[in-house]
From TrEMBL:
PANTHER family: BETA-GALACTOSIDASE RELATED (PTHR23421). GO terms for molecular function: beta-galactosidase activity. This is Beta-galactosidase. InterPro entries: B-gal_1-like, BetaGal1-like_ABD1, BetaGal_gal-bd, Galactose-bd-like_sf, GH, Gly_Hdrlase_35_cat, Glycoside_Hdrlase_35.
Length: 598
């Protein structure tokens, strides 16, 4: 057995140990590429991998747990161990991570009398049940049990959210009671207010800091807080931000490789340990992108989580990788380094869209109708992610334009009258008047709402805006309309779509294309020519696209493809489409005008 301890320094088997860690989130990298990414981390000369654990994927419905396939945490940790990498695991109920709802399950929102991320007993009971299934996977892989986990984290950046110490102690207790014996830590902004609110320093839980530059000043602040509480702990940057995430309508953010390497050098020369956030960013597959909270206009993050990291979205080394590798070699010449692995990607232009069908013509295949007097938010209907369709009949009361309003909905609403789109409203514009002529005595009114991703950080975690779909109702003239049929559209299974059911110009639709390959390799779907929606490869949702940019491609890992015929389906909501789809060997990024971007 081995040991990992914290005194005035990190000790591995009672010998001084500098943690050289890189973040790889197993849920953002296809399992077929775990070895590739982990090998490249080891080849850099690093000794540890760090990962978050997303509660929402592992408990998609209350009491239903999944640790298999693409989210097989045990297999990921075992692969790291086979390469000689130690692990830091951050199994907090909340992870931030630019991940949908900070990793918390959306079904928590159904319990209106519960306060998530607090000492509320009802919330802690849910965490306890989750930990009953998660912790056995982690506990058996701790370093003192023969595994590779050297440290785990209690909560995540809680000092940027609240100061409920009872809650933090409860999370710590739930972990310890289930057998966690390795050292515990917290990570927060390294200034006193944040550290005071978010740490358990008086309970001997190591305080670490998160920053992307100015290591000397940040470590001085962290050290001062340690000393204020009588501690002489080692210094660690748990998140050394080597790049940044991206949002729709904003230019891609880049960081100079040598500037990053200089920061890494500064941390290490100060005697600190570090975790590169991210080492390999990967992809927000499905509906898992997060959202940045703003006062009125929240900013949704893109599918790509490339992060301008040392490994690009595909997992190949960038100039940052080699700049850091040179720095590590200069500071620690005895550390073994290797040549990193690289993968190829293929291109295939002008694949014909062979079939198409309108959403309204395949509703019975995708969902079962739910009837109610008033519209309900998606969570109340047992849906967590995707789209929700609300349908009713509206009687014509006047010959000229009628005034219609969607009251209190999120995040985006499209209104159709008898199948014709009359309006699209987004966030702060929802609720404004929609003027249209009702052409018939009785008219079908459809409102398609899209959950574009819940906030992952900040004060809006508990806001009503995190409840998606229509939350109050729809008014025609001055009165609420009743008698609704609702359909949950998580699009988690599109295998049985009938493409002969009919297609109508301008309606949300599915577009199917097929392509043949002899050997699977990575590729990128060029979404140019399509408006907004999500794409599926052989039935797997590979993420959202939007012609707002800046990234105009969706990454497809080779593990989702197979020799022979493969299927690509684009679900597009704007009526903007192309008869051809191209696959690219590298991402397509657009430079955007930045006027008016918050």
């Amino acid at each position: 057995m081995h040991s990992f301890k914290i005194t005035n320094q990190f000790l591995l088997d009672d010998e001084p140990f500098t943690i050289l860690s890189g973040a790889i989130h197993y849920m953002r990298v296809h399992p077929s590429d775990w070895h590739h990414s982990l090998y490249n981390l080891k080849a850099l000369g690093f000794n540890t991998v760090e990962t978050y654990v997303p509660w929402n994927l592992h408990e998609p419905k209350p009491g239903v747990f999944d640790f298999s396939g693409s989210i097989d945490l045990a297999a990921f940790l075992d692969e790291a161990a086979s390469l000689g990498l130690y692990a830091i695991v951050r199994p907090s109920p909340f992870i931030c991570a630019e991940w949908e709802f900070g990793g918390m399950p959306a079904w928590l929102l159904r319990e209106h009398d519960m306060r998530p991320r607090s000492s509320d007993p009802k919330f802690l009971a849910h965490v306890a049940q989750y930990y009953d299934h998660l912790m056995p996977i982690l506990v058996s892989r701790q370093i003192d049990k023969g595994g590779n986990i050297i440290m785990m984290q209690v909560e995540n950046e809680y000092g940027s959210y609240c100061e409920d110490k009872d809650y933090l102690r409860a999370i710590r207790r739930l972990m310890v009671e289930r057998g966690v014996s390795v050292p515990l830590c917290t990570s927060d902004g390294p200034w006193r207010g944040c550290l005071r609110a978010g740490t358990l320093i008086d309970d001997d839980v190591l305080c670490t800091g998160n920053f992307g530059s100015h290591a000397k000043e940040n470590f001085e602040a962290l050290s001062a807080f340690h000393k204020e509480h009588g501690k002489q702990w080692p210094l660690m940057c748990m998140e050394l931000w080597d790049g940044w995430f991206n949002r729709y309508g904003e230019n891609v953010i880049r960081r100079d490789p040598e500037d990053l390497a200089s920061c890494v050098r500064e941390v290490l020369e100060l005697g600190g340990s570090l975790n590169l956030y991210m080492f390999h960013g990967g992809t927000n597959f499905g509906f898992m992108n997060g959202c940045s909270a703003r006062h009125t206009h929240d900013l949704h993050q893109v599918t790509s989580y490339d992060y301008d990291a040392p490994l690009d979205e595909q997992g190949n080394p960038t100039e940052k990788y080699f700049a850091i590798q040179r720095t590590v070699h200069e500071l620690y010449p005895d550390i073994a380094q290797s040549k990193p692995l690289t993968k190829k990607a293929f291109s295939m232009p002008d694949i014909s869209v062979s079939e198409r069908v309108s959403l309204f013509n395949v509703l019975d295949i995708l969902s079962e109708p739910i009837e109610a007097q008033y519209p309900m938010p998606m969570e109340e209907m047992g849906q967590s992610y995707g789209y929700t369709l609300y349908t009713t009949t509206v009687e014509r009361d006047r010959a000229d334009e009628e005034r219609i309003r969607v009251i209190d909905a999120r995040d985006r609403a499209q209104m159709f009258v008898n199948g014709d789109k009359v309006a699209t409203q987004y966030q702060e514009h929802i609720g404004e008047d929609i003027h249209c002529v009702l052409p018939c005595e009785h008219n079908r009114l459809d409102v398609l709402t899209e959950d574009m991703g819940r906030v992952n950080y900040g004060h809006k975690l508990l806001a009503d805006t995190q409840h998606k779909g229509i939350r109050t109702g729809v008014c025609v003239d001055l009165h609420f309309v009743t008698g609704w049929e609702m359909r949950c559209l998580p699009l988690d299974n599109i295998d049985n779509l009938d493409y002969s059911a009919g297609w109508v110009e301008g309606q949300p639709s599915f577009y199917r294309a097929k392509f043949d390959i002899s050997e699977p390799a990575d590729t990128f779907i060029d979404t140019t020519g399509f408006g907004k929606g999500v794409a599926f490869v052989n039935g797997t949702n590979v993420g959202r696209f939007w012609d707002k940019g800046p990234i105009m491609t969706l990454y497809v890992p080779h593990g989702l493809l197979h020799p022979g015929t493969n299927e690509l389906v684009m679900f597009e909501t704007e009526g903007v489409y192309d008869a051809k789809i191209s696959l690219r060997s590298e991402p397509v990024i657009r430079t955007l005008e930045q006027e008016g971007v918050e």
